[in-house]
Structure formats: C-alpha cells, structure tokens
Design goal:
By secondary structure, the protein is of the alpha+beta class. The protein has one domain: Alpha-Beta Plaits. The chain is 36% helix and 38% strand. It is built from 3 helices and 4 strands, in the order βαββαβα. The chain has helices at 15-25, 57-70, 80-86, and strands spanning 2-10, 29-38, 41-49, 74-79. It has a 4-stranded antiparallel beta sheet. Helix 1 packs antiparallel against helix 2. The protein is globular.
Length: 89
C-alpha cells in the first residue's frame, strides 16, 4: 500500500530530517520526494510505501501530526487510492 504525504509551512532547517525520522521509526519507505521553497514557504510531497509499516495508518497519521506540530509544519497523509480517486477527471 502506498500513500501521499504533504508538508507545508514556513521554511526552516530540519523539515525533511524531522519527517524522514518519523517515517523511519515506523518502517515506512520513501519512494519519491519533491520539495520546493516559494519565497519563505516550504512545500513537499512524498510518495511512501506503507507495506512494511510497524504501525497502523491511523497511528502513523497521529505521529506525523505530532511531528508537524513540533516543527511548526502542516503534515497530511492520504492513501494513494483515495488520492487517485479524488484527482480523476
């Protein structure tokens, strides 16, 4: 199972490290990552593989939310099939 993670907020040092550490602690593999900085704002989207995850999707979501609060970023996760369904034309 795959998921899409988005991270947005004011740019600062350690954003990717913080999110990656949370994913690593849950045995979630990052398949692809794209990030950019627009003026002072950071935006990142990740495609991750949840098949080896050691936590439930709900627990992962809670951990990512906690990480987001600790680094003052908005972090959201959505299962790939939901993302695909929402973006079909």
């Amino acid at each position: 199972m795959k998921a899409i993670i988005t991270v947005t907020g004011k740019d600062k040092t350690g954003i990717i490290a913080g999110v990656s550490a949370t994913l690593s602690a849950c045995s979630v593999n990052i398949l692809d990552i794209s990030q950019t900085v627009l003026q002072d704002y950071f935006a990142m989207i990740m495609l991750v593989d949840l098949s080896g995850s050691t936590v439930t999707f709900s627990e992962l979501n809670e951990r990512l939310e906690k990480t987001g609060k600790s680094i003052s970023m908005d972090i959201r996760i959505m299962r790939e099939e939901i993302f695909d369904a929402m973006h079909r034309l």
